[in-house]
Amino acid sequence: MRSLVREIAAATRGRTGTVLVIGYGSTLHSDDSVGPRIAEAIAGRGYPGVWAQALPQLVPELAEPLARSRAAIFVDAALNPPRPHRPQRVFGLLRLQPSYIHHGGSLHTSDPRALLALAQALYGHCPPAWLLTVPGENFALGETLSAQAALGMTQAVAFLDRMLGARRREKSMPERRVSSTQSLE
To answer: Does the 2-169 domain belong in CATH 1.10.10.350?
Structure first.
């Protein structure tokens, strides 16, 4: 994971351009809301050059802002039932490559690799991107996070603060933030 942290730091620090933080998941399904919650927390920090978006699902309209961005970090919940006597992951991190994934004609996708491929195909560029996953155990209807998801959220936000906060100290950049209730434009 250390090499991924170095990659993210290199892609997000001291450079011009926007870094996207896209948190997605259903805010009505307990732990599935951790992605949007993290994006909202990052949006509230006011980091220069960071555009945080909280969405219920990934949509093709994200391809254009992705193509214009310097880097992208997708944030989602992952099913990780508790296993007694085994260490639990606090959050996971994966480097993403563009990959077309067919979703049976649906215009909505839950795979960020497909959005990266769409950005590349339509606009000729896709940024370096990572998927940050926070383990959850309760995806039933509700608005409360499980203890596992709450801990993962706290640690993931702290991690993103370390990665994105250095941008504020290095160089002032124009800020562009959008909440979950505003349009992408």
So the answer is: no
